[in-house]
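$ ./design --mode recover --in tokens.txt
reading tokens...
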């Protein structure tokens, strides 16, 4: 048992105070009137002082109550702390999320492109690919790769190389015909006559996968001083007969005369097909070669992208079946060629890479272009798996 003395202004006030603390276990023992408050005996007021006794279990009860309150307080604080911690974690998560969102949506480059694509696009541009070709390749990479995958530069680069390679097509085997008439058209100075000489030699000798054939060259390029001499010189060195013709009728007659030849190679004048008269003239020449004649367009790899597209377009009326790319040795950039080929959907048959007749010619192979691209690192074994082996050039 314990005694408690409590003072207050009124009897009721003291009772309420004690009951609040100890409940009904506090029993009034005595009470008296006292003066409370004041200062040095002045201004004090009359009040009551009550003495209670409280049973131990009452005390325990009250202590328990207090302990409970303490426990509650502790739990509450704990929860507040926990909530604070959760809030902090949430804030952390929120700020991380913002960073992630900002990173993925934030323009990695000024135009908002992923860095991998920005770099590859710049490389394509440096390799002289047309804007349309570049846009198509980059759009494909954007749609086929997730943001995570785009971070892996090498794999996007290799995929792009394969897409470029897939767009380089080779012509089908020509239909068997005898004689097989092959006509080379194209702008002046691209190397038509030289290429005709190279083709004559390799077919005559059975090189570069061709079997040894009976070959003849026909030239209509007899307006330019020395042009006739040029091809006749090649002919005599290689022991390939040459015919020179002046008109379309001549040409028709000459082909008819040599119908037992395996392969007739026709060199043409390289005037601008923009000229309507020349265009009509050229059409007559092609008609004279017969419906089975295979027309090839010779273009120099050194031609600028837009000019290349123009040449492809200008020669369209001659329905060339494939392209011969000349002077590959004179440029490190072949995006112009690949853009024009893709744009026109034309296959590429031969590549020439030097002035040596007949050494500097080979059948086209996608890798020959891909390996020339500046700034790209083509995985040759992987690409050879896809497109077949390619020989090393000396
Ligand atoms: N570097 C290089 N020069 C070539 C190539 N093909 C032809 N040429 C040169 O280009 C010039 C023009 O060739 P030509 O055959 O007369 O062109 P054509 O006017 O189209 O008949 C000549 O000096 C050739 O030696 C090639 O693949 N590489
Ligand atoms: Mg010529």
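writing sequence...
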């Amino acid at each position: 048992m314990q005694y408690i003395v409590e003072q207050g202004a009124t009897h009721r006030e003291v009772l309420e105070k004690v009951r609040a603390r100890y409940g009904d276990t506090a029993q009034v023992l005595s009470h008296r009137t006292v003066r409370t408050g004041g200062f040095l005996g002045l201004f004090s007021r009359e009040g009551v002082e009550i003495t209670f006794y409280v049973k131990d279990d009452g005390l325990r009860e009250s202590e328990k109550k207090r302990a409970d309150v303490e426990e509650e307080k502790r739990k509450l604080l704990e929860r507040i702390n926990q909530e604070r911690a959760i809030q902090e974690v949430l804030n952390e998560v929120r700020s991380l999320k913002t960073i992630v969102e900002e990173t993925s949506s934030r323009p990695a480059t000024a135009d908002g492109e992923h860095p991998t694509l920005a770099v590859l696009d710049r490389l394509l541009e440096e390799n002289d690919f047309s804007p349309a070709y570049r846009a198509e390749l980059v759009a494909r990479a954007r749609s086929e790769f997730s943001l995570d995958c785009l971070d892996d530069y090498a794999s996007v680069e290799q995929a792009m190389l394969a897409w470029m390679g897939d767009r380089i097509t080779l012509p089908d085997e020509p239909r068997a015909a005898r004689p097989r008439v092959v006509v080379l058209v194209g702008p002046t100075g691209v190397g038509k006559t030289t290429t005709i000489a190279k083709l004559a030699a390799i077919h005559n000798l059975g090189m570069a996968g061709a079997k040894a054939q009976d070959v003849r060259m026909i030239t209509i390029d007899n307006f330019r001083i020395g042009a006739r001499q040029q091809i006749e010189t090649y002919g005599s060195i290689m022991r390939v007969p040459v015919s020179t013709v002046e008109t379309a009728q001549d040409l028709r007659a000459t082909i008819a005369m040599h119908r037992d030849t395996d392969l007739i190679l026709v060199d043409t004048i390289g005037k601008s097909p923009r000229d309507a008269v020349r265009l009509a003239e050229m059409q007559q020449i092609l008609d004279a070669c017969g419906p089975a004649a295979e027309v090839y367009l010779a273009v120099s790899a050194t031609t600028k992208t837009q000019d290349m597209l123009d040449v492809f377009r200008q020669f369209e009326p001659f329905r060339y079946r494939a392209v011969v790319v000349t002077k590959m040795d004179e440029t490190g950039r072949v995006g112009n060629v690949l853009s024009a080929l893709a744009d026109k959907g034309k296959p590429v048959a031969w590549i020439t890479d030097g002035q040596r007749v007949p050494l500097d010619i080979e059948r086209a192979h996608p890798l020959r272009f891909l390996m020339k691209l500046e700034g790209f690192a083509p995985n040759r074994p992987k690409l050879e798996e896809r497109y077949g082996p390619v020989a090393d050039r000396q």
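exit 0
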